[in-house]
């Protein structure tokens, strides 16, 4: 039975809150827009501070040349200084971008991570190729309505 | 036999709710195997490297790449995945087997859906085989993971 078919007295209004109000929306991590890195070079850590509580639903790294996506890797550290990518031992913290986002058709990597106002995530990216590459940007997609 | 097998009902309910309300479900963490330590030489097989789960949770998808990021490299890079030292995800019906990354992920579809429980102490192992006779490979595999402990964080209003 759908929510619309229920007698209104039994409607769970908390479910309405969980419906995205204006999402999905996108944050850009400004420091990565247009960033160029030489062969084998990693970026400095870049911290993004969330301006309000949201629910992060996916993220995506976009190179200027999409064909080079497989040559990038990325690390993400959340507000608890925990790495999003883990081997369970704290040893490996970066992931190949081509694996997460695809090689020939760029796809967002689906997440479900609530963040609080002023929470900070820290990112680094690395160019694993033998030439200079550049980025169009790093994007965080979120819904507002399902934030904690 | 429980209704959902090894899956706690709250995990199943959460996934169903997310799919019905939002049309998608996402990971709270990404697990990977311990580092290979070196490339896999031409026409050779790597040692088995463990995936050591630190959290109880559910694996919802698998992702992988060979460093070159080409269809040719995907086609000649094979992987074998074993759970708890006994159960193989890929099997020929008699024993565990390798499968090319291209067969799992394709070149345009970068993920393979999976639905498995993971428990600390029950390691998975990953082994790569390089069928390219002319070049070494640097492969990696990732698991989209929902930790049970993160469920309450994800949907506090529902409980």
N-to-C order of helices and strands of chain A: HEEEEEEEHEEE
Note the gap between the termini of chain B.
Answer: 26 Å
Global geometry of chain B: globular
- The helicity of chain A comes to under 10%
Order of helices and strands of chain B: HEEEHEEEHEEEH
- As an assembly, this protein is heterodimer
**Proportion of residues in helical segments of chain B:** 10-25%
User: By helix and strand content of chain A, what is the structural category?
Assistant: mainly beta
What is the average per-residue confidence, as pLDDT of chain B, rounded to a whole number? 86
Distance between the termini of chain A: 27 Å
Number of strands of chain B: 9
Summarize this, please?
The complex is a heterodimer of chains A (148) and B (159). With 148 residues, chain A is mostly beta strands. Chain A contains two helices and ten strands.
């Amino acid at each position: 039975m759908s929510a619309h078919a229920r007698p209104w007295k039994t409607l769970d209004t908390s479910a309405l809150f969980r419906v995205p109000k204006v999402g999905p929306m996108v944050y850009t991590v400004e420091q990565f827009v247009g960033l160029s890195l030489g062969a084998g070079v990693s970026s400095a850590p870049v911290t993004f501070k969330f301006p309000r509580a949201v629910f992060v639903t996916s993220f995506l790294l976009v190179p200027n040349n999409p064909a080079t996506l497989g040559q990038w890797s990325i690390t993400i550290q959340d507000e608890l200084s925990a790495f999003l990518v883990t081997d369970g031992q704290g040893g490996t913290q970066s992931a190949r971008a081509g694996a997460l986002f695809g090689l020939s058709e760029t796809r967002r990597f689906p997440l479900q991570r609530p963040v609080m106002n002023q929470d900070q995530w820290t990112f680094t990216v690395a160019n694993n190729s033998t030439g200079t590459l550049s980025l169009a940007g790093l994007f965080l997609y979120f819904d507002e309505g399902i934030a904690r | 036999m429980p209704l959902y097998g090894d899956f706690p009902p709250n995990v199943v309910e959460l996934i169903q709710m997310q799919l019905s309300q939002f049309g998608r479900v996402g990971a709270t963490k990404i697990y990977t195997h311990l580092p290979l330590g070196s490339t896999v030489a031409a026409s050779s097989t790597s040692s088995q490297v463990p995936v050591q789960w630190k959290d109880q949770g559910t694996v919802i998808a698998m992702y992988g790449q060979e460093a070159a990021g080409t269809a040719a490299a995907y086609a000649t890079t094979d992987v074998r995945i074993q759970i708890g030292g006994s159960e193989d995800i890929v099997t020929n019906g008699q024993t565990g087997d390798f499968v090319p990354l291209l067969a799992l992920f394709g070149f345009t579809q970068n993920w393979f859906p999976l639905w498995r429980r993971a428990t600390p102490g029950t390691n998975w192992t990953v082994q790569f085989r390089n069928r390219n006779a002319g070049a070494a490979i640097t492969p990696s595999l990732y698991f989209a993971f929902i930790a049970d402990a993160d469920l309450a964080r994800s949907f506090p209003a529902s409980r």
